[in-house]
Design goal:
By secondary structure, the protein is α+β, with helices and mostly antiparallel strands. It has a single domain, classed as Glutaredoxin (3-Layer(aba) Sandwich), CATH 3.40.30.10. Helix content is about 25%, strand content about 35%. The protein is built from five helices and twelve strands. Strands 7, 8, 9, 11 and 12 form a five-stranded antiparallel beta sheet that branches. It has a four-stranded mixed beta sheet with strand order 2-1-3-4, sandwiched between helices. Strands 5-6-10 form a three-stranded antiparallel beta sheet. Strand 3 and strand 4 form a beta hairpin.
C-alpha cells in the first residue's frame, strides 16, 4: 500500500510536469499560414463589416490578423481614436511597392503582397489561398519565450525558407477595443476591433539560418495587451513579403 501511494504520487508529479511543460510552450507550435493586415478607419462607412471579418480571422489559430487604423478619413468629421500616421505611411508604402498605388479602406494585405477588399470575406479567403498555394505556412519558424522581463525571439528556417534578409519587427497590440463613434459616417455606431496595432519597432535583421533576438517586455508591449513579431523583407524602404510571424500570449 505504501509503495502504491508513492507510485501514485510520482504519477501525479509527472502529470503536473507534463502539463506545465505544455503550458510553457510557445503559443504557436508551427508557422502560421498567413498574416492579414487590415487598414481601416472609424470614419469610413464601409469599414465596420471588414472590422467584423478581421475579428473572425483573428480567432483562427493559424492566422495572424492585425488592425492598422489610418488617419486619412479624419477630415470627414470624426478623428479616428486609434489611428496613427505611421499606419497610413505603411499602407502607402505597400501600394508603392506593388506599383499600383491603390490606397483605400477597408483594404487587407495578405503576407505583405496580396491586396484585397477587407469586407469581402470570400475574396479575403481566396487571397489567402492564392498566397499559400505553393507553401501552406510562412517559411520562417518564429517562437517567443518570455523570461525575466525579456522577450526572447527565436528564428529558424523551414525546409522551403526564402533566404532573403528580413527586418525583425515588434508590434505592440491591443487584444480588442470597442469604440463608440459620435460623428461622421459611422455616427451612432459602436465598432469592435481585434488585435489593434499601436506601434512598429524594428529590433534587428535576420540574414539566414537560426538566430535569436531579445527585447524588454515593457518595450515589446508598450502598455498594450501583447505584441506580434514579424519578419518582413524590404526593398528601397518599402515593405515586402512576410517570411515569419508569431503572437505573444494575451492576443487572439
Amino acid at each position: 500500500m505504501f509503495h502504491g501511494g508513492i507510485m501514485v504520487s510520482r504519477l501525479k508529479l509527472i502529470s503536473a510536469a507534463l502539463f506545465l511543460a505544455a503550458f510553457m510552450q510557445p503559443a504557436q507550435a508551427e508557422p502560421p499560414r498567413a498574416v492579414v493586415e487590415l487598414f481601416t478607419s472609424q470614419g469610413c462607412s464601409s469599414c465596420p463589416p471588414a472590422d467584423a471579418v478581421l475579428v473572425e480571422l483573428a480567432r483562427e489559430p493559424d492566422v495572424v490578423a492585425l488592425s492598422f487604423p489610418v488617419n486619412y478619413w479624419d477630415y470627414l468629421g470624426w478623428k479616428d481614436t486609434l489611428a496613427h500616421k505611421a499606419f497610413t505611411e505603411r499602407q502607402k508604402a505597400y501600394a508603392h511597392a506593388r506599383g499600383d498605388r491603390q490606397v483605400y479602406t477597408p483594404q487587407m494585405i495578405v503576407n505583405g503582397t496580396k491586396p484585397c477588399i477587407g469586407s469581402n470575406r470570400a475574396q479575403v479567403e481566396d487571397s489567402i489561398k492564392e498566397v499559400t498555394a505553393s507553401q501552406p505556412n510562412l517559411p520562417l519558424d518564429v517562437t517567443i519565450k518570455e523570461q525575466n522581463g525579456v522577450a526572447k525571439i527565436a528564428v529558424s528556417e523551414t525546409a522551403m525558407a526564402d533566404m532573403r534578409a528580413a527586418d525583425v519587427w515588434v508590434l505592440p497590440v491591443l487584444r480588442t477595443r470597442t469604440v463608440p463613434i459620435e460623428r461622421g459616417e459611422n455616427r451612432g455606431r459602436s465598432v469592435t476591433y481585434a488585435n489593434v496595432v499601436r506601434g512598429l519597432k524594428r529590433i534587428g535583421e535576420w540574414r539566414g539560418g537560426s538566430a535569436e533576438f531579445e527585447v524588454p517586455l515593457e518595450v515589446a508591449r508598450s502598455g498594450a495587451d501583447g505584441y506580434v513579431v514579424l519578419l518582413q523583407t524590404s526593398e528601397h524602404m518599402k515593405p515586402g513579403v512576410i517570411l515569419g510571424a508569431a503572437k505573444s500570449p494575451g492576443l487572439y
